[in-house]
Amino acid sequence: MNSVTETPQQNASDRGVPEDARKRFELLEDCRELVISRLSKVIGEALAKMGEELAGLAIKAKDTEEQRALMDAVSVVRQHRAEIELRFRRSFSDVFERRMFNKAPAAAAAAEEPEELALVDDSVMQAKLAVDRLVHRARGRLDPDEVLGVRARLAALLERDWFEEGQHPASPEAIFEALKASLKELAPKADVQAALLDAFEPHVSANLNVVYSTVNERLKANRVLPKIRAQVAVQRGGPTRAVGEKAEPAPAAADPRLRPGGAPIGGDPLAGGPLPSAQEMQTILAQLASGNASARDTVTRMLSNPDTFAVADLPIPSVEPPVLDALSSLQASSIGATVVSPELIADLADRAREKGSPLDQLTVEIVSMVFDYIYADKRLADIVKQQLLRLQVVAIKAALIDRSFFARRQHPMRRLIDRISEVAADPDIDLAPGGPLVKGLESVVEWVLLNFDQDLATFDEARERIEALAGDEAARRAERLAQLTRDAERTEAVAHARALARSRLADRVDPETPKFIDAFLDDWWTLALAHAQVAGPASPISFDEAMSIAEGLIWSVGPKFPEEVGKLATLLPKLINGLMRGVRLASMPEEARKAFFDELLKAHTRVIDGAKQLRLSGAGRKPSNLRMHSDGRIQFTPIVKAQATSLAREPAAETRGAAIADLRRGDAIEIASDEAGTQFLAYKLSWVSPAQQVFVISRFPDAARSIARDQLIALFECGRARLPEAASSVDKAIESIGPESRLRAPRKTAHAQPA
Q1: pTM of the entire predicted model
Q2: Cα separation of 656 and 323, whole Å?
Q3: pLDDT tens column, 110-127
Q4: Strands ordered across the beta sheet of 721-722
Q5: Which of helix, strand or coil describes residue 348?
C-alpha cells in the first residue's frame, strides 16, 4: 500500500517565525479575522446571486421533487439571506478556532460515548457523500502552492509541524462544515440543504484561492516562512516515515517493467497511481535510453504530474552541463534578432541529442510541442507569437533546470508565457507595430535573453515588467472608454427610471384604455419620464409633470358623461402642449409622432360622440381609476384591474440570465460578424454596470459600444455570441499528454514567419 504525506521542507533557522509569543498571537488573530471576513464576504456575494441561479435551475428541472427542493431553496435565500450570513460567520469562526487549536466540538463528548452499533441512515450517508463531492470539486480548483503555504504558515505560528490537508482551519472541509451548520435550522430538509450547498460551491471554489493568497502574502510580509518547498514522504508497505529517512528500495521484479505482483512501474501518475521508487525510476530511465515507447509515455506523464516534484526520495536527474552550455550559446546568438532563425529552431533538438541524456531530449521535445501550440493559437497576433518564439531557447533551459515546468502552473517561465499570452489575447489591446505595448514586449524579451542564466527569478521580474506594460495599456484604454462608460451609466439609469415609470403607468391604465394609448405610453412616454427623472432640474419637463400629463391623456380618451365634455375641451390645449414637449424629450420620430396625434384626434372625437350617446341612452359607464376635479386637477385612485395591460408586463424569466451569469469585467466575448453567424470577432467586456443591466464591449481601435442585458442574452441564446476557449497554449499542450498519448516530434519547419 502506498501512502504519500506532503510536508514543507524548511530549516528551522530559516523560518522567520516571531519568537515573541504575543507577536505570533497577534498574527494568528490577524489571519483569523482576515479569513473570516473575506469568506463572509464571499458568502454574502454568493447569496446575492443564488436566488436567480436556483430559480433558473428550478425552471429547467424535470423532476417534480427536485423542482420543489430548488424553489424551497430560493425561498430560504430570499427570506433568510441576512440570517444565513450571520450564522455562517459565527459557525465558521467556531470551526476555525476548533481546527486551529485542536478543540473538539461541543457535541463531540457525547459522540465519543460507546453505544450499541447501529446502521448509518442512508440519507445521512448520502448527505456526507454529497458534501465530500463539493469539497473535492472545490479542492480541484485550488493552487497547490497557496494551499501548501496556508497549511505550513498557520502551523508555524502555532509552533506545530504541519496541518493535514483536510484539517487546516480554512480548508474547504471547514467552510462546508460551517455552511451546513448555518443552514441546519433554516433549511432542515436534506434535499433543500443539499441544493443550497451545491449552489454555494462555485462561489466558494472561485474565490478560495484569493483568500489563501491574501493570507500567504500577509504572513510572508511578516517573514513567516517566506520560502517553502514541498516534499512528499513516500512509504511503501509500512507506516509513513519521517521526511529525510532513508527509503528501503523495493525488491527487484522479474520483469524490469513490472513491480512484484505484476503492477506496472510508475502506475499512471496522472490518474493518481503510485509514483515509482528510486530504483524503479532508474529502471524507467534506462528503458527510455533504449527507446522503449512505454517508458517514454511513463516519463512524459511523470513530468506533467505535480506529485513527481514533491517526492523527497525520487531522484530526477539534473540536466547535463554540456546541454546548458550549448543552449546558452544559442541564446546569446539570438540576442538582437527580430525574428526566429530557422537554423536556431532546428539546432535545438540536435544539441539535446548530441550532448544531453534521454530525459533531456524528451524535455526539449515537450517544450517544442508547447511552442507548436503557441504557433497555432489563433487568439495571438503574429507579432506577439514572434516574440514568444524568441523565448523558446530560454524556455527549454528553464524546463531543464527545473523540470516541473510541465507539472506546475506556478513555474516562473510558464507564468511568464501565460501572462504574455493573456495580455496579447486581449481583443481591445493595441498591438500595432511600433506601438507602446509591442515595443515594450520586444524590450522585455530582449532583457530576458540578455540576463537569464540559471536563476528562475529572472522570469518573475520579467513578468512584473509585463504587468507594468499591461497597466499602461489599461490606462490608455480607460481614456478611450471613459465617455462610452459615462453614456452606459446614463443608459442604465434611464433603464431603471423607465422601469419605475412603467410600473407607475401600469396602475393608471385600465382595460378601457385604447391600445394605441397603451402602446404610446409604453414605447415613448416611459422614455420621456425616464429622461426627466435622470436629468432632474435640467429637464425641460419634470417627472411629476410628465406623470400628470400621462394621467390627463388616459382620462381624456376614457368614456365621458355629457357634462364632462366641456372639461375635456378645456384640458386639450394644455394636454397637447405637454405631450409635444414630452415626445421631443423622448426623441420620438416625426412620422410616428404625426400618426399618434392623428389617432388621438379621432379618439377624442369618438369620446365626444360617445358622451352624446350616453345622454340619449341614459346608461351608466364602468368605473375609472382617474377622475377630474372641478379645478381641472386629475386624481388617481387605484382600483382592482380586470386584466393586465402591456405596461404591466412580467419581467423576463430569471433563467434568461443564465447565459451571461458568469460574465465578469475583463472577459472576452466572441460575436458573429456576418449574417450567417460563421465568422466571429473577439471583444473585451470592458465595463459592467452595477445592476448588470448594461455592458460595454470593446475591440481595438474603435469598435466599442454599449449593449443592454436583454440584447446580450439574446445574442447568446441565438448562437451569435459565445465565450472563447479559456485554456492557454501551454495548458492545452500539457493536457494533450495523456495516458494513451504518443508525443509527436517537434515541428521541423521554422516559426520564423507565423501565418
Answers
A1: 0.50
A2: 58
A3: 444 444 434 445 556 667
A4: 705-708, 694-698, 680-688, 668-672, 721-722
A5: helix
